[in-house]
Amino acid sequence: MSAEITPERIEKVYQRLDREAKEAAYNLNPDKSFTLGLVEGLLVNEGRYGYWACPCRLADGVREKDLDIICPCDYRDPDLDEYGACFCALYVSDDVRDGKQELTPVPERRPPGGPTAQAEEPEHDEELVGFTRSGMPVWRCKVCGYLCARPQPPLKCPICKVDKDRFERFA
Amino acid sequence: MVESRGSIPGAHQKHLVKFYGLSTCIWCRKTRQFLEDESVAFDFVYVDLLESDERESVKDEIRKWNPRVSFPTVVIDDAQCVIGFKADELKQVLGL
Questions:
Q1: Does B95 score more than 60 pLDDT?
Q2: What CATH code is carried by the domain that includes residue B10?
Q3: Are A144 and A157 in contact, with CB atoms under 8 Å apart?
Q4: At what angle are helices A32-49 and B26-37 packed, to 10 degrees?
Q5: Do B22 and A107 touch (CB under 8 A)?
Q6: What is chain B's Cα-based Rg?
Q7: Total domain count for chain B?
Q8: Is A74 in contact with A68 (CB distance < 8 Å)?
Q9: Domains in chain A, start-ordered, CATH in brackets?
Q10: Which long-range contacts (CB under 8 A, 24 or more apart) does A81-89 make?
Q11: Strands A27-28 and A91-92
Q12: Helix, strand, coil shares of chain B as percentages rounded to 5?
């Protein structure tokens, strides 16, 4: 049974997201009522699926299949670069925040059905040297590109706060 | 509680308008609001609220127009499709 979605809860999550976004040099959409609506959608999906599937995308309901669209999604940063906003426009660029760039609809970048529906990508294991000179593997956050050298990826990305399963082996 | 399917009456009935959306999506909400404000008659489906069998058949329906099955998708007269919240494009296609 998930917690009830009240305006107070939405506001609290909004405040946390806003703080975390600023700390990592991202911006939430400054149109607060719009952004609160997205936060509400995220909380609805948390109740439905157990994770923050993007409110503007159709989730499968299986976490492994939806990993790339768990907010912040794998497509946020490329969309911020190209369009000044992520697909749902929860996150926007500095120019959009400051009104220097108009917010336009962002086309869907996600491959149809998500990456797991595509032909299995060949593993690059053979290209990896295996370990760095220190003997540590390097892990890359697929959302923000954060790299760290440690035996396992961190439980949460210290930059964008996504969970451990959003990391890939980089070296 | 949002219904998964329904029809909205409107003064503009010249076109057969099908709105495919997600109940959690703000852009879908804006698009639906636009159609209602313009008094366009349309049928709506919230795909996230459908049971799995029906959901798959509706996804197949959308895929014909929009291979990425993104939302909102508005199909007009089974002939044209507008993907995303694009008021100007909808106005043009619907002759508003």
A1: yes
A2: 3.40.30.10
A3: yes
A4: 120
A5: no
A6: 12
A7: 1
A8: yes
A9: 7-113 (3.90.460.10), 125-169 (2.20.28.10)
A10: A85/A29, A87/A54, A87/A56, A87/A57, A88/A38, A88/A41, A88/A54, A88/A55, A88/A56, A88/A57, A88/B25, A88/B26, A88/B27, A89/A29, A89/A34, A89/A38, A89/B26, A89/B27
A11: antiparallel
A12: 35, 25, 40
The answer to whether ipTM exceeds 0.90 is: yes
Domain that holds residue B76: 5-94
Q: How far apart are CA B90 and CA B52, in angstroms?
A: 30
Q: Are A38 and B67 an interchain contact pair (Cβ–Cβ within 8 Å)?
A: no
Indicate yes or no: CB of A41 within 8 angstroms of CB of B25.
Answer: yes
Tens digit of each residue's pLDDT (9 = 90 or more) over A75-90: 999 999 999 999 999 9
Residue A37 phi, psi dihedral angles, 5° rounding = -65, -40
Q: Check CB contact of B4 with chain A, cutoff 8 Å.
A: no
Residues in chain A closer than 8 A to B67 (CB atoms) = 112
